[in-house]
Design brief:
Helix content is 11%, strand content 43%. The protein is mainly β and 308 residues long.
Length: 308
């Protein structure tokens, strides 16, 4: 009997030990799975913030010799979240007194894809600058010159926030409880050098009620926003009327910006059909033309007889 009790006690001890071990193991697994280690993959939203294309010089060269050809490589990298089209890279304000330029510009055919979940690193596209340095004047040991690399392109971005619509007026809960006509909302951008940075909803009246969506588009990139065209605008599945107040075209859907202008406005009007307020997407697509320039220095050195 005593031996049987000892056996049962031994089995119970073993089972308790196994159970405790399994409990500790489960707690360890849960703690590891709930902790995000440094460097782990986190899903990034590429359509947030301001992201801009860029021109980079992978092999910087700031000196050339007189009477000699030169080759300065540049690369276009599209760090924005949308493709670029009709891309032209040109070299400007090149002093023809000292430099002969063989390739003053590069039109890049096709689309230049942007960054995204499947291509987080922008693919560089070569746009080389080559030519020849002319001979310096007698008695001159070197000559400093400057030139600009200008990039012009067409691209787009989309704006798609969730809004509250309904016939209830300013800040009054109705229906589902969302508030119509809340104060201004700010946005960090939509993954391009330009984007919607502010929106305000204004509700009007109870007889034939309307909602105005007043938006501010900002240029926070390195260059100039030249032109914008608005695509289809929708609240839910319903098309709405949107215009650029600064537009001079009859439809009001295209605007040309002045040099150095950093902001423009968009006004949309939505005719409310029902009385209960509810949340729904607002979506607008924008096409735009953009250009930016970068300045570089180049020194032409005296070469002597070796260049003759």
């Amino acid at each position: 009997m005593r031996m049987g009790k000892n056996i049962r006690r031994g089995k119970n001890t073993i089972l308790r030990t196994i159970g405790l071990t399994m409990l500790v193991l489960c707690v360890f697994i849960l703690s590891v799975s709930c902790t995000t280690p440094k460097g782990s993959s986190i899903v990034r939203n590429y359509h947030q913030g301001m992201l801009s294309p860029d021109i980079v010089n992978p092999l910087p060269q700031d000196k050339v010799y007189e009477g000699r050809p030169f080759y300065i490589p540049f690369q276009l990298v599209n760090n924005a979240a949308y493709p670029l089209e009709n891309v032209v890279v040109t070299y400007e304000q090149v002093d023809s007194t000292y430099l002969d330029l063989y390739t003053p510009g590069y039109p890049l055919s096709g689309k230049i894809d942007g960054v995204g979940p499947f291509n987080p690193e922008a693919v560089p596209h070569d746009v080389a600058f080559d030519g020849a340095a002319k001979y310096l004047k007698a008695g001159t040991s070197y000559q400093d010159t400057i030139y600009w690399v200008k990039t012009k392109f067409n691209s787009k971005f989309s704006f798609a926030p969730t809004v509250c619509v309904g016939s209830s007026s300013f800040d009054i809960d109705s229906g589902s409880g969302c508030k119509v006509g809340e104060g201004p909302t700010t946005f960090s951008g939509q993954g391009a050098p330009v984007g919607v940075t502010k929106m305000e909803q204004i509700a009007y009246g109870q007889f034939g009620p309307q909602i105005e969506f007043r938006m501010t588009i900002s240029n926070r990139g390195p260059g100039d926003l030249l032109k914008m065209k608005m695509g289809t605008a929708m609240v839910g599945s319903e098309t709405i009327r949107c215009t650029f107040p600064e537009s001079t075209d009859p439809e009001g859907t295209t605007v040309e910006l002045k040099q150095g202008q950093k902001e423009t406005a968009v006004l949309c009007i939505y005719n409310v059909a029902g009385s209960a307020s509810y949340k729904t997407p607002l979506s607008i697509d924008f096409d735009y033309t953009y250009e930016f320039s970068k300045k570089y220095n180049l020194r032409i050195m005296k070469a002597g007889r070796v260049a003759q």
